[in-house]
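To whoever is on call:

I kicked off a structure prediction for a single chain this morning and the downstream step that reads the tokens threw a length-mismatch warning. I double-checked the sequence; it's 333 residues and nothing unusual in it as far as I can see. Pasting both halves so you can look.
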Amino acid sequence: MNHLCTLFDRFYLDKGLALHRSLLDTGDDFTLFIFAFDDICYDILVDMKLDKAEVISLKQFETEDLLKVKQNRTKAEYCWTCTPWVIRYVLDHYNVDMCTYIDADLFFFQSPDILLTEIRDKEDSVIITEHRFKKDHNYEKLVQDHGKYCVEFNTFKNDEKGNLVLNWWKDRCLEWCYFTKNGDLLGDQKYLDKWTSQFEGIHELQNLGGGVAPWNLDQYNLCKIEGKKIKLIEKISGNEFDLIFYHFQNLRYITNRLINIKSGTKDRYLKYSIYFPYLTCIEQCREMLKNNYSITFETQKSCSGNKIISFIQRNFMQFKCKSLSDIIDLKKI
């Protein structure tokens, strides 16, 4: 059985439920530990009695140390702070051999077990996932700004090497975890950049099917679709691979009907093949939440503590668009 964990609040309920549904659809044997970051989210998840899920409330999870830093960090920054802490909680309270953190806006097209075999029964204890930015003239700046690795799919074995890395990361995020770009630091993410030289047992995920996202999608072409399975091909190498999960980061609702998917590619066939199944699932989750729990969703989104940046993020970023085909009318999918 695979043990996975994620965290989200009521404003990410639609995405979190879509993530859970995608895991169920893979037919995998798993437990998803969901850390509900507000009471509304917790109450709804408990009421839903989700299959193969364990829901943990903030009252169960939060420590005095976390509560001290919570008041000085934005909601997003606090979630980033808690990322290694939720992994630590699962390893400590559920006596599991290995736990994988997954972002709530991931969606699985095939089982994560395909990725976990890269370290299962092997000496490495930690999986980290590269952003896989395109290696062009912007590559160095992207790595400098965002880090080489993405906190999206991170696995830790409950052994000496895995716990050493996890505890170090947990302590560092408690000390500093902000959206501010600070050279060597950015949120919880850039701490990972030196792990391969700093610790033993670090494994960089090799399967290209784990970690496909808007920041690297333009490097691939669609090869074929078989049912729910999507096969991509890397342009530069010609290597074919199955899409395991996609990171639907930075979706921006312009209205309740129009959404800017910000896909990073102009290839309509490619992006629509990936985005339409997800958006369909999201709309189904939203409809269920509205009908059963009177939950609706706002279109504004911000993660910065800077008032000016936050205002821009909430009021203008949804209109930023590199391709007009990224504007999707949800009534037409």
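Update from on-call: the warning came from a stale cache, not from the record. Cleared it. Sanity check on the structure: The chain has one domain: 2-332.
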